[in-house]
Write a structure and sequence with these properties.
Blueprint: H1 2-23, E1 29-32, E2 37-38, E3 50-55, E4 58-64, E5 67-70, E6 83-84, E7 93-100, E8 106-117, E9 124-129, E10 134-140, E11 148-153, E12 158-160, E13 167-171, E14 181-186, E15 191-193, H2 214-262, H3 268-278, H4 282-285, H5 289-294, H6 297-316
Parallel strand pairs: 1-8
Antiparallel strand pairs: 2-6, 3-4, 3-7, 4-5, 7-8, 9-10, 10-13, 11-12, 11-14, 14-15
């Protein structure tokens, strides 16, 4: 039972030690890149003593009774402190100083952990309006890990101690006067402050008349433009086709007119001649038979001469089809 209690106590003590070690700052000293630093070590009466400095167990200085066998004498002060110049990230680590008596016993020792940090960049302060009266401030900076943030009211020059986060939410409605803000970022060796920002949030714009997304509106406009272009192409095609058909019809009409001009025309004299020949003569129709019988032969011959002359005249006219000359009827002698 006693062994169990002792074991349990040892476990609890180890846990407490680990927790305290986790909360402890791993660096005893902080320095900026390019900075000079003197390690804090003091020992009076180094004349006959041996002094040794190590960096991560590597000897960087060794001197005894005023003689220096490793390192530079000007880097060591009269009290034994070490001066580091133009620090770089490789200069970080554990430094240890040991002073040994002439009888080879340890007179004094010191060790410390050095961390070399870069200078913080200047932050950029931005804000976002959540509503017309609420605003969220954001302190933007590169590599925010390990940095400390602070906020300051510019008008009152008052630091908001309770606000140590990268963002700050405020309500403009609760403030009588709109104030300006600044944010600061800092590490163990440097600190930077942002420009002053005065947040103002306007009322939101009225909702759009059409609850459509911009992509939908663009798609509708593109479709309408494509439809109009298609209609124009169809109209132009129909007009060209109609014009071609009209041109072909006009050419056909012109060809028909030219053919009609080339065909021979029938003479009106020819038509009149046929009508005269087909029509019965006056002597054949109007004179009665008794009258013709009473006329003597010489008178009949005399009357037939004009008819024969007219027939001869008609025979002399040009005609496409020649016909034999007709003689008048002979009157029998009684």
């Amino acid at each position: 039972m006693a062994c169990l209690a002792a074991t349990l106590g040892l476990v609890i003590f180890s846990g407490i030690m680990d927790l305290s070690a986790a909360n402890k700052d791993p660096c005893d000293l902080y320095a900026l890149v390019g900075q000079n630093l003197t390690l804090p070590f003091v020992f009076e009466g180094l004349g006959v003593h041996e002094l040794r400095w190590t960096h991560n167990t590597k000897i960087i200085f060794y001197g005894q009774q005023g003689r220096v066998s490793h390192g530079k004498a000007e880097d060591i002060s009269k009290t034994g402190s070490l001066s580091l110049k133009n620090l770089q990230f490789s200069s970080a680590g554990i430094y240890q100083a040991d002073v040994v008596n002439p009888n080879r016993t340890l007179a004094k020792t010191w060790n410390g952990s050095l961390c070399v940090l870069d200078k913080v960049a200047k932050p950029q302060l931005t804000y976002i309006c959540v509503k017309t009266s609420d605003v969220i401030l954001n302190c933007n900076v590169a590599n925010p890990q390990g940095l400390t943030f602070s906020w300051t009211l510019f008008m009152d020059d008052k630091t908001l101690i309770s606000e140590t986060k990268q963002t700050l939410s405020i309500s403009l409605a609760q403030q009588k006067v709109v104030r300006s803000f600044t944010c600061s970022v800092a590490n163990k060796v440097s600190k930077e402050k942002s420009d002053t920002v005065r947040p103002t949030c306007e009322s939101p714009p009225p909702p759009p008349l059409f609850c459509l997304k911009s992509q939908t509106v663009l798609a509708v406009l593109a479709g309408g433009a494509g439809l109009i272009l298609l209609l124009l192409v169809i109209i132009i095609t129909l007009c060209c086709r109609y014009r071609r058909i009209r041109t072909q019809m006009r050419r056909r009409d012109q060809e028909g007119l030219s053919l009609n001009k080339l065909e021979p025309k029938i003479s009106p004299v020819y038509e009149t001649m046929h009508q005269t020949e087909d029509a019965p003569t006056v002597s054949q129709t109007s004179l009665p038979k008794d009258c013709c019988e009473n006329v003597t032969q010489p008178e009949a011959q005399t009357e037939n001469k004009p008819a024969q002359l007219s027939a001869d005249a008609e025979g002399q006219r040009p005609s496409p089809v020649p016909k034999p000359r007709t003689k008048g009827p002979k009157t029998p002698n009684i």
